[in-house]
Amino acid sequence: MTTAFSHLGICVADLEASMRFYTEVLGFEPGASFPVGHEFGPLMELDGVALQSQFLSRDGVAIELLFFSSPETLGEPVRRPVNQLGLTHLCIRVDDVDAVALAVARHGGTVLEHTRTTMGDRTDPAAPDFVYCTDPNGVRIELMRLPG
Fold first, then answer.
1. Which pTM was predicted?
2. CA dist., res. 94 & res. 103, Å (int)
């Protein structure tokens, strides 16, 4: 039996804002985009499916942004507790946590400054440095600087 990772799907409230966030802040490249209709309703366990699918990729990882026109998007754009079962976060390796965190905030995300964790002097580029952020839809993203 052969298996291979394909992609991770993220439901978004604003496709253009999410595209800017993932491409301009996190360096993903746009890929295929297409409408998805009722034929995927059984797979998604939803009636009356109408959405726009936008693929993005980086470093061999693909994300599919799903923008629903029907049925309407549910929920609030808030991050899930990290100890809640299921997907907890995406992690992006960066050279400069501060610079990327500023870009996150400028592009509609939230920087959770109270989560900032540095192993040593934050100004030392060899010191591991981490902070959690969220994208505009509340998806938790870890920014991680590691030496080497």
1. 0.93
2. 12
Rounded mean pLDDT, 66-90: 93
CA–CA–CA angle 97, 57, 78 (5° rounding)? 55
Token look-up 């301009």 returns: 24
Q: Give all domains of the chain, ordered by start, each with its CATH number.
A: 8-70 (3.10.180.10), 90-145 (3.10.180.10)
104, 128 contact by CB (below 8 A): no
**Per-residue b/e over 67-84, b at no fewer than 16 CB within 10 Å?**
bbeeeeeeeebebeeeee
DSSP-based three-state secondary structure for 22 = helix
Residue 68: phi and psi, rounded to 5, are: -85, 130
Helices (H), the chain: 15-20, 41-44, 97-106
Q: pLDDT digit string (tens) for 6-18?
A: 999 999 999 999 9
What pLDDT, on the 0 to 100 scale, is given for residue 123? 86
